Amino acid sequence: MFKIAFILMIAASACRTDCVIAAEFDAPRSTDYYSDLSDPADLSPALIGGTVADQADWPASPWVGNCSSTLIGDRVLLTAAHCVSNGSSKSFTIGSTRYSGSCTHHASYKGNSTADWALCYLNQSVTGVKFEVVSTAEEAACVNGRMYLWTGYGCQRWGGSIDGKFRVGQVATTSCPSGTNYDTITRGSVALCSGDSGGGGYTILANGDRRVVGVNSRSNTRDTSYVSSTYVSSFRSWAKSWGDSNSAKICGVHSDAENCRGTSNPDPDPDPDPQPDCSGLLSKTVQTLTGHSSAVRELQICMER
């Protein structure tokens, strides 16, 4: 533990202005914070400048051993590509169930660190959870000065102690994606720290719902964060293709995805034009008009036309 902290402190002290470090952390084992410790690294650290969140409001944000992550479908885990080797797996626990999934990098990641996306296909469907929804570009509405919400289990300062709490914090955007640079960049008192990698960045809509705008990727270790945007077409088109090939539905990408946060699954549409029981209706009408032979005869004529 002291060796890890020493290395991180050296890295942080070397980065004075523009140095960018991946916000990943391979945390040590501890029995104080996680009930499931089947992985030696199952301990979650905390976000620089963030505030402790109500974990009940973030059930789709599991810790995956060395990084944060987000569930965006019943069989889909989203994390940072630098958190997992291409084709390798990630595992996490919700309740008493252990899940694992094989992860795929975006094809551009090898030569473009801003495409820091990995999608993991889970070995079974996650139940009892509302999944986070991937934002569209219109919902993200990225402009300089726009406030986004960063989240994660990362440390509160580089090389500092960890406390096992999930934190969130809002910060202003200083740069939006452009061309093949997919970063949303923010600067302020809230910033990504080691362990936040792979976690979700969010925009808050006018109605209070939230949408995933990116995957936590890198930090200058103090005040500037680099988040790989998920509202760009390069991610959304890849996610749709990946989902289709795996028969996996992604909230915000596939219109038929289920159990998405902020949405409900409606009952099947009722018959838009239910057919009456004509024979029964005619019988009732005739009974009603009994004694009015002329009216019955007129009704029969109309029915024959």
Features:
globular, 5 helices, 305 residues, six-stranded antiparallel barrel, 18% helix, five-stranded antiparallel β-sheet, disordered N terminus, Thrombin, subunit H, alpha+beta
Biggest sheet: strand arrangement: 8-9-10-13-12-11
| The CATH topology | Thrombin, subunit H
Number of helices: 5
Note poorly predicted spans: 1-18, 25-46, 266-274
Q: How many independent structural domains?
A: 1
Could you give a short account of the major beta sheet? 6 strands, antiparallel, barrel
Q: Which architecture would the CATH scheme give at its second level?
A: Beta Barrel
* Secondary-structure class: alpha+beta
Helix content: 10-25%
Rounded average pLDDT: 80
Radius of gyration computed on alpha carbons: 27 Å
Q: Label the overall shape.
A: globular
Number of strands: 13
Secondary structure layout:
Layout: H1 2-14, E1 21-22, E2 51-52, E3 70-73, E4 76-79, E5 89-94, E6 97-105, E7 118-122, H2 137-140, E8 147-152, E9 167-175, E10 183-187, E11 200-204, E12 210-219, E13 224-229, H3 233-246, H4 278-288, H5 293-304
Antiparallel strand pairs: 1-12, 2-9, 3-4, 4-7, 5-6, 6-7, 8-9, 8-11, 9-10, 10-13, 11-12, 12-13
